[in-house]
Design brief:
By secondary structure, the chain is an alpha/beta fold. Helix content is about 35%, strand content about 15%. The chain has a 6-stranded mixed β-sheet.
Length: about 240
């Protein structure tokens, strides 16, 4: 038996400001830090020894995990992977979701945000928010830096990395992944065999650990959010 714990980073500054964030590095709000602290406390109560920690390349996910490790008094090395990054929102990056809803219509914004294979317009490489202009990605191959992504694109890179680098390790390890709304949504689609309609309606709360218990065949035995007051429907559980 092993455990996989998935956590979306705590509330970020741009979550609060209702902006499309994507690959831009923004930090946690004070509320986001509190969410991460509570997440660490809830995980500690489970008395599970976490053997491996994974994070995206992004500051909000890294800092969420840092706070959790401080609560656990466990400072194992974190494996960072850009493949676990948030979905790239293309030309929507940095724009306000409410303002965009007023401008192009709520249905159109919802379609772009939650449809399976529709991409926003690409972000210009001249834009300071493009990954080619963000120091974090200086050592990455330019062909790996997207201009825009659909949820399908995000799913493909996240699940490829999970299948190649993480899944097999679950046979003998308890693993915690700190990532993002759409990268965790992609993992849930894969783990729970959700269809494209189910994945579009799946909500991932910030800073709330989703603990998944697996048997030796890596089949899911049990799955639940640790913070019951802020739990969201898992569609299949």
């Amino acid at each position: 038996m092993s455990y996989l714990i998935l956590i979306r980073h705590g509330q970020s500054v741009w979550n609060l400001e209702k902006k499309f964030t994507g690959w831009v590095d923004v930090d946690l709000t004070e509320n986001g830090k509190s969410e991460a602290k509570k997440a660490g406390q809830l995980i500690k109560q489970e008395n599970i020894e976490i053997n491996l920690y994974y994070s995206s390349f992004q500051l909000r996910a890294k800092n969420t995990l840092k706070i959790i490790q401080e609560e656990l008094k466990d400072f194992k090395k974190v494996i960072s992977a850009w493949e676990l990054n948030e979905r790239h929102y293309g030309a929507l990056t940095g724009l306000n979701k409410i303002e965009m809803s007023n401008k192009i219509g709520e249905d159109k914004v919802h379609e772009v945000r939650r449809s399976w294979d529709i991409k926003p317009e690409p972000l210009s490489k001249k834009n300071p928010y493009h990954p080619v202009n963000i120091e974090t990605y200086n050592n990455m191959a330019k062909e790996d830096l997207p201009d825009t992504e659909s949820l399908k694109d995000t799913y493909e890179r996240v699940t490829k990395y999970f299948g190649e680098e993480i899944e097999k390790k679950l046979e003998a390890n308890n693993i915690l992944i700190s990532a993002h709304g759409n990268s965790i949504r992609a993992l849930c689609k894969n783990l729970f065999n959700l269809d494209n309609n189910q994945i579009s309606s799946l909500e991932i709360p910030t800073g709330n650990p989703l603990i998944i218990e697996l048997n030796k065949k890596l089949e899911i035995i049990k799955c639940e959010y640790l913070d019951k007051e802020r739990a969201k429907s898992l569609v299949v559980f």
